[in-house]
Amino acid sequence: MTAQKTLSDLAVALLDGSVRVVDCAAPLGPNTPLLKLPPELAVDTPKIEIHEIARYNETGPWWAWNWLKLGEHSGTHFDAPQHWITGKDYPDGTTDTIDPQAFVAPANVIDCSREAAENNDFLLTADGVKAWEAEYGEIGEGEWVLMRTDWDQYNTDEDKFLNTDATGPHTPGVTADCVEYLMEKNVLGFGTQCIGTDAGMAATFDLPFPAHNLLHKNNRYGLASLTNLDKLPPKGAIFIANPLKIVRGTGSPVRALALVPAS
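Given the sequence above, the corresponding C-alpha cells read:
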C-alpha cells in the first residue's frame, strides 16, 4: 500500500466516521490545576489569566479576541528536553527546534486505573510494562507510551488533582527502571494523566524525578494532564501532540488528540 493510498483511506475514514477524533486535553483557563513545588525548589507558575481585548464593542466593533498570561507547563502540556537540566544542551530540545515528525506517532496505552484507584502512590515498573507487552504486543521504537490512571476525573478540583497532605503530593507515576526500560526501547516519550510526568512523591526517590531526568537526558518528550485515555485502545491509536512554536520554549500547552477506530 502506497503512502498516498494510506492518506486517502485515512481521509475517507475521517469523513465517514469510521475513524474518530478523541480530545485528550483538559480545558485551559483560570481554574486549571497547576503544579506546586516546595518553595525551596521552585517558584510556582502564576494562575492562568484571560484578558479581553475586544468583544464587539468600542475597543473592536466587529471582532472578539483576548490576550493570555500562562506558563509553558500549564494544563495539558508538552515537555521539551530543555525543560530539564539533563536535556539543556540539545540544540533540537526546544519547542521551536523539535522536528514536527515527533508530534504524531502511534500510542501504547497502559491501563493502571485499578491500581491507581487502590493506591494513589502507585508506580508503574519495568516489569509492569513487560507484562503489558506480553498481553498486547511489543512497544515499538518512536511510539508514545501513555499511562492511564483515570486521574483526569479530578482535574476540575485542584485539591483532589494535586492530592497533597502533610507528607507531600500523592499521585501515581513511574519508577526509574520503568523509564530506563522505555529508553532502551527508544520510545518517543511518556505521557500521564496527572499534573506532571513524575509521581507526586518523586522528589523523595533515590533518583529524584526519574521521568523528567531520564526522558530529557535522552532527548525524549513528556506529556502531562492528559484526558480521556479510557477512550483509547491499548494499541492502535495515532496520537497527536503538537506544542506551540515558542522561541526557545521548554514546553507548551497542547490540544492533544487521538485518532481511533470508531468500533
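The chain has a mean pLDDT of 96. Try to locate this feature in the C-alpha cell string yourself.
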